[in-house]
Amino acid sequence: MSEQTRDVATRDSLPADRYIDRELSWLAFNQRVLELAEDPTIPLLERANFLAIFASNLDEFFMVRVAGLKRRIVTGLAVPTNVGRAPTDVLEDINRTAYELQLRHARCFVEQVQPALAEAGVRIVEWEQLDNADREILTDYYEHNIYPVLMPLAVDPAHPFPYISGRALNMSIRVRNPRTDKIEFARLKVPQMIPRYVRVDRRESDDNVRFIALEELIANQLDGLFPGMEVIDDHVFRVTRNEDMEIEEDETENLIQALEKELLRRRFGPPIRLELSDDMDEATLDLLVSEFDIDEQQVYTLPSPLDLSGLFALGGVQRPDLKFKPHIPVTHPKFRKSSPSEKPDIFAAIARREVLVHHPYESFATSVQAFVEQAATDPDVLAIKQTLYRTSGDSPIIAALIAAAEAGKQVLALVEVKARFDEEANISWARKLEQAGVHVVYGLVGLKTHCKLVQVIRQEGGQLKHYCHIGTGNYNPKTSRIYEDFGLFTTSPEVGRDVTKLFNVLSGYAIETDYDRLLVAPLQLRAGLLERIEREAENARAGLPSGIKLKANSMVDEVIIDALYLAGQAGVPIEIWVRGICSIRAGVPGLSENIQVRSVLGRYLEHSRIYAFENNGNREVFIGSADLMHRNLDRRIEVLVRIIDREHLGRIDRFFEFAFSDDVSSWRMLPDGTWQRRVISEEGELLPDLQDLVMLDRTEAGSRRAR
Question: Is 450 one of the annotated active-site residues of the chain?
Answer without folding.
Answer: yes
